[in-house]
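Hi Q.,

Before the meeting this afternoon, I wanted you to have the flavin mononucleotide prediction in hand. No need to reply - just skim if you have a minute. The sequence and ligand are here:
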Amino acid sequence: MTTDLSTTYLGLSLRTPIVASAGPYTRDLDHARQLAEAGMSALVLPSLFEEEILHEENELTSALDALAGTNAEATDFFPDDVFERFDSPADRYLEHIEAVKAAVDVPVIASLNAGSHGAWTSYARLIASAGADALELNLYHVAADPDRTGHDVEQADEFLVGEIAKLMEIPVAVKVSPFYSSMANMARRFVDAGAAGLVLFNRFYQPDLDPDSREVRPTLELSSPWELRLPLRWIALLRPALPEVSLAATTGIESGRDVAKALLVGADVAMMTSAVLRHGPDHVRRVEREFVEWATEHEYDSVAQLRGSVSAANTEHPDAFERANYVRTLHSYTLN
Ligand SMILES: Cc1cc2nc3c(=O)[nH]c(=O)nc-3n(C[C@H](O)[C@H](O)[C@H](O)COP(=O)(O)O)c2cc1C
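Predicted structure with the ligand bound:
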């Protein structure tokens, strides 16, 4: 018997639950095509960053101001090419959406990295008109301002999600941080604000310090499979609380068994970047094959059947996801 691999994510029907998360491979058209050919059932494009849009707007304003200054007689006249002289990241992003959409026959999800609400949010609309099937709102910020309370940060994030979701005619997923003090409450607030899906979790990169030069060095290390445990716990806890919302697992998906784990706790899709960067696009075929082998061995007929079957609502020991047998785990360590 063949396993029915189909799943639904953000209202999109996908052939399998294996999706490419935002990363360098989906930035490049040829690589995006290779990923789709290897079996990725949807592609998330790298983020368009709020800073890029704001920087571009500032540059354009300065140039227009300068031109206005040199042409005091006709301050509203500007050469036609003034807008074209800016190699606009936002325009290039919209062109990339169109190009990837034309090149692959799987859904394409655009990504917007946002820190705050502002005039730039109207770019979200352009993303939809460029043909993206959905938008992933990547919330990536570090709450370093001592004057802002946790409540301030949460409210700002919730407001931003609400504003973007209101603007969009396509579904919006939110790629969230694991660092909210009440993750479950924030998850529900994002859904109430209009998010159709949650992507768990954004992976925060920690800068390193060179003690000799005293330079702070941004570092990027690819993930390891053990890092999947954080999204696993939270998807298991959130699935029963938010039965209707789409949940995507991201971080540490390396093999077909990892895909199985993500789905068992309640994810609709499992996303990959690091594994593909390590092994190349063909790795996707292997992950799908391993997943099918696992599902066959355990006699699952479909993804729908196995999804959430070990969430906190369906497991015998839901507290294992909460305290993770904290005391027993600590006491189980034996000294040599
Ligand atoms: C080089 C690189 C670039 C990335 N760029 C983005 C990005 O633009 N937007 C985003 O939301 N995530 C980005 N990510 C994060 C990935 O989408 C993914 O969430 C993260 O790598 C964890 O998944 P993994 O363990 O499969 O790598 C990037 C990751 C890598 C390694």
